[in-house]
Automatic annotation (TrEMBL), chain A:
It catalyses: L-glutamyl-tRNA(Gln) + L-glutamine + ATP + H2O = L-glutaminyl-tRNA(Gln) + L-glutamate + ADP + phosphate + H(+); L-aspartyl-tRNA(Asn) + L-glutamine + ATP + H2O = L-asparaginyl-tRNA(Asn) + L-glutamate + ADP + phosphate + 2 H(+). This is Aspartyl/glutamyl-tRNA(Asn/Gln) amidotransferase subunit C. Its EC number is 6.3.5.-. Belongs to the GatC family. The keyword Cytoplasm does not apply. Allows the formation of correctly charged Asn-tRNA(Asn) or Gln-tRNA(Gln) through the transamidation of misacylated Asp-tRNA(Asn) or Glu-tRNA(Gln) in organisms which lack either or both of asparaginyl-tRNA or glutaminyl-tRNA synthetases. The reaction takes place in the presence of glutamine and ATP through an activated phospho-Asp-tRNA(Asn) or phospho-Glu-tRNA(Gln). The gene is gatC. The lineage of its organism: Bacteria, Pseudomonadati, Bacteroidota, Sphingobacteriia, Sphingobacteriales. InterPro entries: Asp/Glu-ADT_sf_sub_c (IPR036113), GatC (IPR003837).
UniProtKB/TrEMBL annotation, chain B:
SMART domains: GatB_Yqey. The lineage of its organism: Bacteria, Pseudomonadati, Bacteroidota, Sphingobacteriia, Sphingobacteriales. Belongs to the GatB/GatE family. GatB subfamily. Its EC number is 6.3.5.-. This is Aspartyl/glutamyl-tRNA(Asn/Gln) amidotransferase subunit B.
Length: 97, 494
């Protein structure tokens, strides 16, 4: 697989990043390098190996349904870039999806 | 896309078939959220029910609420699903301000329940099975408020992380009536199971509809539109009917249906485009590494199965078999869990099941239709209903007086003793037949011509005399005795 400018544009959009046009060439090179490096792994036959998702063998870690308050509203809001003492404030959004 | 709805002829519409599948989100009535211990209750002050996890702070780790799993299994068993023994959670990635982590934890590839069905009964009495594709567990997002502040949108994270199950049907629904019947059946089930309050206005139960049309006989589905945010059963029906007409009209004009996400405006009854296919999100699902997999044991599933409450379908069957009620009566009695529980209590105190059913399906149901928020049990205890039934059975008060006077007076004055109220309203039937004969004499002398008609064989006029006697006695007579005495009196005059 090769990365092209269109893929870069798509990834930038998905990550909500602004990509400067003069960065594009170096990004293209870096990303293709990474992919080629990973392709090395494809030389191994992994058809009988289960994908690794979890790094421990733990299953069924549950919590009982009991209320605990750990954060006060004031503490929750205090690190927000914008807030009005009650709500977090964000750039106005119209489209709700 | 607002299109003028021209009137195509009925014949044109009849060439087409409607195809609908529903996605229903039910907020589970747990005390805490799905992955953290902050309260999941509705109605707190903004940003009071929060935790490190629901704020999406870096380094916080989700931990699964056991009750959510139990509730999801309950719904799966009640809808005849296969419960998957191995479960996994996945991340659904998208950016939105009320989703602080940047992804929603949901179940994509390995949902907890699959392949069930919900049986619905239509108005004509026919039954249909709507197949389920899946039920999965996921977290709700926070709430955005766009219209209160000039420059910014306001975010309240109380709802972030509230547990949801999403119930996804197959595209088996063929009419607005079926869609409504299916949604109300699902609502009935979550209420009987006591896993969600089913309140659509507050958003505890939310519905999106995938709607398409095709020519009858076609085996391929047409391209579908997803209509979001249908917040009542009526709006679901309106949206389905509107979309059917809109899509048929476009196809008839030779225009292709775009696969869009639509919004339904309840004020105008019209759908409009929320997102086009090009704007569709690319969610890039992948397994959630912060939550270990879930394996469900046979014992756990069996235990939940054993503890399932009686479901509406079983209740209908029992009412028919044990109480000899009609299908119609039984269906009506079980349509609402609270009403059905009330009936259950009443029959614990009386053996006149049919009278109990009539009382609940008559005055009680019409009262609740007008006052949906009332708790009938608090207004009129089940014992009182049983007492009223026995008074009628003993010929001490008549049914008309119960429906028109006694019941309304009792619910208006909760706590007043039934017998006291009967006294106060003066409803006791006159057992003194002299008094009754007086009313009959009066009624008969008022209509000499009707007496002649009766003697000529027109038995229908009996009803007129009966009505007059009722009126004169203010309903305080036993209809059976009165009828007998009227006939005797008329025969005497012959």
């Amino acid at each position: 697989m090769n990365i092209d400018n269109e893929t870069i544009a798509k990834m930038a959009h998905l990550a909500r990043l602004d990509v400067n046009p003069n960065e594009q060439a170096s990004l293209l090179k870096d990303m293709n390098n990474i992919l080629h490096f990973m392709e090395k792994l494809n030389e191994l036959d992994t058809s009988t190996v289960e994908p690794l998702i979890y790094l421990t063998d733990e299953v069924n870690v549950f919590r009982e349904d009991e209320v605990q308050t750990e954060v006060s509203p004031a503490d929750a809001l205090k690190n927000a870039p914008m807030q009005d003492g009650t709500y977090f404030q964000v750039a106005k959004v119209i489209d709700k999806g | 896309m607002k299109t003028e709805q021209k009137t195509l002829s009925q014949e044109v519409f009849e060439k087409y078939e409607l195809v609908v599948g529903l996605e229903i989100h039910a907020q589970l009535s747990t005390a805490t959220k799905i992955f953290s211990s902050d309260s999941a209750a509705f109605g707190a002050a903004p940003n009071h029910h929060i935790s490190l996890v629901s704020l999406g702070l870096p380094g916080s780790l989700p931990k699964l609420n056991k009750k959510v799993v139990t509730f999801a299994i309950k719904m799966g068993l009640a809808t005849n699903c296969t419960i998957n023994r191995v479960n996994r959670f996945d991340r659904k990635n998208y950016f939105y301000a009320d989703l602080p982590k940047g992804y929603q934890i949901t179940q994509d590839e390995m949902p907890i329940c699959q392949r069930g069905y919900v049986a619905i009964t239509l108005k004509d009495g026919s039954e249909r099975k709507i197949r389920l594709n899946r039920i999965h567990m996921e977290e709700d997002a926070g709430k955005s408020i766009h219209d209160r502040d000039q420059r910014s949108s306001l975010i309240d994270l109380n709802r972030a992380g509230v547990p949801l199950i999403e119930i996804v049907s197959e595209p088996d629904i063929r009419s607005a009536e079926e869609a409504a019947a299916y949604l109300s059946e699902v609502r009935k089930l979550v209420r009987y199971l006591d896993i969600c309050d089913g309140n659509m206005e507050e958003g505890s139960l939310r519905c999106d509809a995938n709607i398409s049309v095709r020519l009858k006989g076609d085996t391929e589905y047409g391209s579908r539109c997803e209509v979001k945010n249908l917040n009542s059963i009526r709006n679901l029906q309106r949206a389905v009917n509107y979309e059917f007409k809109r899509q048929v009209q476009l196809i008839e004009e030779g225009i292709k249906i775009e696969q869009n996400t639509l919004n339904f405006d309840a004020a105008t009854g019209v759908t409009s485009v929320l997102r086009s296919k090009e704007m569709a999100y690319d969610y890039r699902y992948f397994p959630e590494p912060d939550l270990p997999p879930l394996t469900l044991s046979e014992e756990l599933i069996q235990q939940i199965k054993d503890e399932l409450p009686e479901l509406p379908e079983q209740r209908v069957k029992r009412y028919r078999e044990s109480f000899a009620l009609s299908e119609y009566d039984a269906q009506l009695l079980t349509s609402d869990k609270a009403v059905s529980d009330y009936f259950q209590e009443v029959v614990n105190h009386t053996s006149n099941y049919k009278a109990a059913a009539n009382f609940i399906n008559g005055p009680v149901q019409s009262y609740l239709n007008e006052n949906p928020a009332e708790n009938i049990k608090m207004k009129l205890p089940a014992e009182s209903v049983a007492l009223i039934i026995s008074l009628v059975d003993d010929g001490k008060i008549n049914n008309t007086a119960v429906t028109q006077q006694l019941f309304p007076a009792l619910v208006k004055n909760p706590g007043v003793d039934v017998l006291d109220m009967v006294q106060e309203l003066n409803l006791l039937i006159d057992t003194d037949s002299d008094g009754l004969l007086k009313y009959i004499d009066q009624a008969v002398s008022m209509y000499p011509d009707k007496v002649t008609e009766y003697h000529k064989g027109k038995k229908g006029v009996l009803g007129l005399f009966m009505g007059e006697v009722m009126k004169l006695s203010k309903g305080k007579i036993d209809p059976k005795t009165a009828n007998k005495l009227i006939v005797e009196k008329l025969d005497l005059l012959k």
